[in-house]
């Protein structure tokens, strides 16, 4: 399978298992598609390496390394890898599908994040990296583009395409890999990466989350690399003054130029972060809404004693506030109200206590009576219908019976639910009905049969209308050149599931895709054109012109196209057409006819495809004349069809 345009890949079946649905993203090494795993009936993300990289062993090894690296990790903050394989000449990788956005998308939308948001994302990324580092894997490409923020709130790190196993220090052995804005000084200067290189990149990413910009910028990549190698990363507070001191120190720790001054791996940094987020006594908080906090004393190992006595900073853009109310002089616990005022208030209300106690008893009795009616014979006695879709009919009946409901069954065709499995109920799941009510279980009959009409010879639009009107789907559309079929006309049609031919129609099922092969018309004729004009003509049709061999031609001038040759098999856009170029007429040598009778010499010269310039009176008695001179002379090479001058005597 060579790399094809996106509209051709969509609908294809990869390795007989993965049905490609739509494109998610495209990168320098591969394109990621949303696909359906037909075997397990689940959505997956499938990364397919670009076809033009298939012959590059370095890229292919890096692609396979991603599968092996990520597959060794089983962690909630690392994107799961399910499968890896080879389909024809292209490698693919099947991963967990996470609908959502990347951290880069979030930064583009909001510019910068709050300290609380930064710490939450940092904790998740560190957890995933800690698992990788524990498994001996260095990610080597930590950046916002590789942090996924799922719609359900999960945060995961992805793209282990540059990951390598750790051997003390892992050298690249080639040009620097990874994104230049996040490269550590040791990678720039020595090309060596270990777990501390990931920590440096994470520190740069933290700076970017807090400030909305990267610490180093330049017109050329080498300018940025030079700053990484020679400068100290500034504190985030130099850009955003409200940044808490704790996060300033965290960034400084993670981005130290000397790797020995950084956390040795993600676990060390994560432990410090988790310790810094803790509270000394969470139970003392009067509300469950506790602030996210970082203790400076727990952030870095070399804090001064003065910092150790400082108050815990609340992560936010303004000076910290105490959610418990005013603090005492020692800064511990809330300030107690005046007890004497509270006792005076209670004394004033003591006289009416008897009345309110009596009223409370009456209220409780009424509530108990109402509650008994509501749940005994009122609306509260209704039963919520449980969700039984995707269960077997027997299991569905058992669940309905368990909650006090009766059931009956009916059937319906379904494009989404396999045959013999419950599609839904009537009334639907969650509806409340009286006890012993009858709930209808709708069981799937599978795909509804249909009959496709003949599709060959129809226009693509007409074939699409026929297919969709029957509630089937158009799968892949494969445009090819065909000398005998008009452009836009369907050449053939196949089942997407097994490539079975349905060009002439036949039995099919609703919801299943049909792949179409559509004609692009004949390959343009370029015979007689110049190479430049022929190249332009073919490129306008989406083809590539490649000059081939040269040949002599008596009819096509030198330098023009004699003929064009297409590759074997179906010719698609992007195919290479080989051009045969004319060298002009084939040269011939002037025969030696001096001294020969004119009748014999004339025949020899005409057989050599030469034009003769002579006195036509010699033809009156050719046997009486003898050739005395030929110009050009005998043995000279001239183009076929050239004129020669003949002199002769009687």
TrEMBL record:
<keyword id="KW-0812">Transmembrane</keyword>
<dbReference type="InterPro" id="IPR011009">
    <property type="entry name" value="Kinase-like_dom_sf"/>
</dbReference>
<keyword id="KW-0418">Kinase</keyword>
<keyword id="KW-0067">ATP-binding</keyword>
<feature type="region of interest" description="Disordered">
    <location>
        <begin position="314"/>
        <end position="344"/>
    </location>
</feature>
<dbReference type="InterPro" id="IPR008271">
    <property type="entry name" value="Ser/Thr_kinase_AS"/>
</dbReference>
<keyword id="KW-0472">Membrane</keyword>
<dbReference type="GO" id="GO:0045717">
    <property type="term" value="P:negative regulation of fatty acid biosynthetic process"/>
</dbReference>
<dbReference type="GO" id="GO:0005524">
    <property type="term" value="F:ATP binding"/>
</dbReference>
<feature type="domain" description="PASTA">
    <location>
        <begin position="584"/>
        <end position="650"/>
    </location>
</feature>
<dbReference type="InterPro" id="IPR005543">
    <property type="entry name" value="PASTA_dom"/>
</dbReference>
<dbReference type="Pfam" id="PF00069">
    <property type="entry name" value="Pkinase"/>
</dbReference>
<dbReference type="GO" id="GO:0004674">
    <property type="term" value="F:protein serine/threonine kinase activity"/>
</dbReference>
<feature type="domain" description="Protein kinase">
    <location>
        <begin position="18"/>
        <end position="274"/>
    </location>
</feature>
<keyword id="KW-0547">Nucleotide-binding</keyword>
<keyword id="KW-0723">Serine/threonine-protein kinase</keyword>
<dbReference type="InterPro" id="IPR000719">
    <property type="entry name" value="Prot_kinase_dom"/>
</dbReference>
<feature type="transmembrane region" description="Helical">
    <location>
        <begin position="355"/>
        <end position="376"/>
    </location>
</feature>
<keyword id="KW-0808">Transferase</keyword>
<feature type="domain" description="PASTA">
    <location>
        <begin position="380"/>
        <end position="445"/>
    </location>
</feature>
<dbReference type="Pfam" id="PF03793">
    <property type="entry name" value="PASTA"/>
</dbReference>
<feature type="domain" description="PASTA">
    <location>
        <begin position="521"/>
        <end position="583"/>
    </location>
</feature>
<protein>
    <recommendedName>
        <fullName>non-specific serine/threonine protein kinase</fullName>
        <ecNumber>2.7.11.1</ecNumber>
    </recommendedName>
</protein>
<keyword id="KW-1133">Transmembrane helix</keyword>
């Amino acid at each position: 399978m060579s790399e094809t345009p996106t509209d051709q890949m969509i609908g294809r079946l990869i390795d007989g298992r993965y049905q490609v649905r739509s494109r998610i993203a495209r990168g320098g090494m591969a394109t990621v598609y949303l696909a359906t795993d037909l075997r397990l009936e689940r959505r997956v993300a499938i990364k397919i390496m670009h076809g033009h990289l298939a012959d590059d062993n370095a890229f292919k090894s890096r692609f396979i390394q991603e599968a092996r690296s990520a597959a060794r990790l089983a962690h909630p903050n690392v994107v799961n890898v399910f499968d890896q394989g080879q389909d024809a000449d292209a490698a693919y990788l099947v991963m967990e599908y996470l609908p959502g956005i990347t951290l880069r998308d979030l930064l583009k939308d909001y510019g910068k994040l709050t300290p609380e948001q930064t710490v939450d994302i940092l904790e998740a990324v560190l957890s995933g990296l800690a698992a990788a580092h524990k498994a001996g894997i260095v990610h080597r490409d930590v950046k916002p583009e590789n942090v996924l923020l799922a719609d359900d709130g999960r945060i995961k790190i992805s793209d282990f395409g540059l990951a390598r196993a750790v051997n003390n220090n892992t050298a690249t052995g080639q040009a620097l890999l990874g994104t230049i804005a996040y490269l550590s000084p040791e990678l720039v200067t020595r090309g060596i990466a270990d777990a501390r290189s990931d920590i440096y990149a994470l520190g740069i990413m933290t700076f970017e989350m807090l400030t909305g910009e990267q610490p180093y910028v330049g017109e050329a990549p080498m300018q940025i690399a030079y700053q990484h190698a020679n400068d100290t990363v500034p504190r985030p507070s130099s850009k955003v003054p409200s940044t808490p001191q704790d996060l300033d120190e965290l960034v400084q720790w993670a981005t130290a130029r000397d790797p020995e001054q950084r956390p040795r791996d993600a676990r060390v940094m994560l432990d410090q972060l988790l310790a810094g987020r803790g509270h000394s006594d969470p139970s003392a908080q009067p509300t469950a809404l506790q602030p996210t906090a970082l203790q400076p004393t727990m952030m870095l190992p070399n804090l001064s004693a003065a910092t150790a006595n400082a108050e815990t900073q609340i992560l936010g853009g303004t000076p910290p506030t105490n959610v418990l109310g005013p603090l005492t002089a020692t800064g511990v616990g809330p300030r107690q109200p005046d007890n004497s005022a509270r006792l005076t208030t209670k004394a004033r209300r003591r006289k009416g206590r008897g009345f309110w106690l009596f009223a409370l008893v009456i209220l409780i009795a009424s509530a108990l009576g109402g509650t008994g009616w509501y749940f005994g014979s009122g609306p509260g006695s209704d039963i919520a219908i449980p969700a039984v879709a995707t269960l077997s009919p027997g299991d569905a009946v058992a669940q309905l019976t368990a909650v006090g409901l009766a059931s009956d069954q009916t059937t319906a065709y379904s494009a989404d639910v396999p045959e013999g499995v419950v599609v839904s109920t009537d009334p639907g799941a969650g509806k409340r009905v009286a006890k012993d009510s009858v709930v209808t279980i709708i069981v799937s009959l599978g795909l509804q049969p249909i009959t496709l009409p003949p599709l060959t010879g129809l226009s693509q639009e007409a074939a699409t209308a026929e297919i969709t009107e029957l509630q089937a789907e158009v799968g892949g559309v494969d445009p090819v050149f065909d000398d005998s079929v008009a452009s836009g006309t369907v050449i053939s049609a196949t089942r997407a599931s097994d490539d079975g031919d349905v060009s002439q129609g036949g039995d099919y099922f609703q919801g299943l895709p049909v792949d179409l092969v559509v004609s692009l018309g004949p390959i343009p004729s370029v015979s007689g054109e110049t190479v430049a004009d022929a190249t332009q003509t073919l490129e306008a049709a989406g083809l590539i012109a490649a000059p081939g061999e040269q040949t002599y031609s008596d009819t096509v001038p030198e330098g023009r196209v004699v003929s064009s040759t297409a590759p074997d098999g179906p010719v698609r856009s992007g195919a290479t057409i080989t051009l045969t170029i004319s060298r002009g007429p084939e040269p011939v040598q002037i025969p030696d006819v001096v001294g020969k009778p004119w009748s014999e010499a004339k025949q020899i010269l005409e057989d050599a495809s030469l034009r003769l310039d002579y006195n036509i009176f010699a033809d009156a008695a050719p046997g009486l004349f003898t050739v005395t001179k030929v110009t050009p002379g005998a043995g000279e090479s001239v183009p076929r069809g050239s004129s020669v001058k003949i002199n002769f005597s009687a």
